Amino acid sequence: MITINELNEGTAETFVQHLGGVFEHSPWVAQQVWELRPFASAAELHERMMEQVYAASESQVLALLQAHPDLATRMQVTAFSAQEQRGAGLDQLTGEEYEAFASMNAQYVSKFGFPFIMAVTGCTKDDIEQAMRQRMDHDPEREWTQALREIARITRIRLERIVTDRSQE
Fold first, then answer.
1. What residues form the membrane-spanning segments (predicted)?
2. What 8-state DSSP symbol labels residue 74?
């Protein structure tokens, strides 16, 4: 855990070292937000990070969306994603469940052009499956917006695990 003050006072390299992985394979968010220091709180830091995402070009946001792994994938994922998916039970799927998720993931990517993104912390595999089925009915614009909302939730949770507003004594 690092304090907001330590982040504010640190170098760009240290800042990105701690926060570069908050947005899946997209350290550019931390790199850009470093220039906006100091931050009064972790909540403000997160708000500024999301502003960078919303202000990014469509192609940059698409790359961010595409950087997320398929849920329930058996491929190597970041430590953050592995922990989140493990917590939702996606690492313990039966062969049949895995095939169902793989099929839904493929359909989703085919329709929207990026993987299904959901803040799975606190969810079960059934919650995730139900959300995926419901969101397949979204139009592309609505799903783009929903995916960004999910990224905001995911990154807020990740930041809460990394940054504290309190001094470490």
1. none
2. -
Tokens 């039970």, located at residue: 89
Nearest to 154 by CA among 52, 22, 1: 22
Asked if 133 and 105 count as a contact pair (C-beta separation under 8 A), the reply is no
Amino acid making up residue 12: A
Average confidence (pLDDT) per 10 residues, the chain, 169 residues: 96 97 95 97 98 97 92 61 67 84 93 95 90 96 98 96 80
- Contact between 68 and 115 under an 8 Å Cβ cutoff? The reply is yes
**Local structure of 3: helix, strand or coil:** strand
Q: Please tell me whether residue 79 adopts helix, strand or coil conformation.
A: helix
Q: State both tokens at 28.
A: 């550019």
Kindly state the DSSP code that residue 90 receives in the 8-state scheme: G
Q: 123-141 burial, b for 16+ CB within 10 Å, e for fewer?
A: bebeebbebbeebeeeeee
Residues whose CB is less than 8 angstroms from the CB of residue 118 and which lie 6 or more positions away in sequence, other chains included: 71, 128, 131, 132, 150
Active centre residues (catalytic): 68
Distance CA 160, CA 93 (A): 28
**How far is residue 23's CA from residue 51's CA, in Å, rounded to a whole number?**
13
Beta-carbon contacts of 55 under 8 Å, excluding residues fewer than 6 positions away, are none
